Amino acid sequence: MDILLLEDNAALHANLVEQLEGAGHRVNLAVDGETGLNLALSQPHDVLVLDLGLPRLDGLDVCRRLRERRGREPLILMLTARDTLEDKLEGFAAGADDYLVKPFAVAELLVRLEALARRSTPKHREVLVVEDLRYDVGEYRVERGGAPVVLNRVGMRILRELMLASPRVVTREQLEAVLWDGFSPEGSVLRSHIYALRRAVDGAGLVPLVHTVRGVGYRLAREAGA
Fold first, then answer.
1. Which end of the chain has fewer CB atoms within 10 angstroms, the N or the C?
2. Position 225 in a domain
3. Nearest to 73 by CA among 107, 45, 108, 54
4. What's the distance, CA 30 to chain centroid?
């Protein structure tokens, strides 16, 4: 995997480069946001591992500008000490595919990267429909009532699982198995993705489709009487 690492902490990026290369990945390094953005725009990478607290250009700005210029490529995994729900939602809204809070174990980073890479490309053409929600998996296109719905890759993967199971419940454990090969990330990560998914799919004036089944998981369906 070709990885672009944007991290200004010398001790941390030295360790990450060693560990990532030791796991067989190719790593480019930038220690400020402006240099990193230029590298991301000029060279192909599979994944961008992006620290938010960068000099010259903040990580959120790097993420937003890259998405504006390059669309959904490359995958973006954010590294940050900002651990509130609002911080995570802001990162996902900027275009991040995953979010890892410092301090973290390098083993978890490797699991997240491998899971992102494996889930990034659909294996066949697939169009899913639930009520007025349509997801063309092959084209990475989601629409609700004919209007486009914008999601990051993790949100689209969650949506696919919920639509495939609809109207049945998908447990938290089942989603973690799909997204992170069964590795359970910090508790609010999946909730943050579900929140962002619900906000995108169930817009103002629309009948809610994304529902939390407390203590069990999530389901996507029109509730009786809605």
1. C
2. no
3. 45
4. 22
Under a CB-based contact definition with an 8 Å cutoff, are residues 78 and 31 in contact? no
111 pLDDT tier (thresholds 50, 70, 90): confident
Question: How many structural domains compose the chain?
Answer: 2
Q: Which two tokens stand for residue 226?
A: 């809605």
Hey, what are 168's tokens? 């049945």
One-letter identity of residue 82: R
Count CA within 13 A, CB hemisphere, residue 76: 29
93 within 8 A of 152, measured Cβ to Cβ = no
How many beta carbons lie within 10 A of that of residue 57, not counting itself? 17
| Residue carrying the six token digits 């944007």 | 6
202 pLDDT band, cuts 50/70/90, is very high
- Domain limits at 163? 127-220
Is the pTM higher than 0.70? The answer reads no
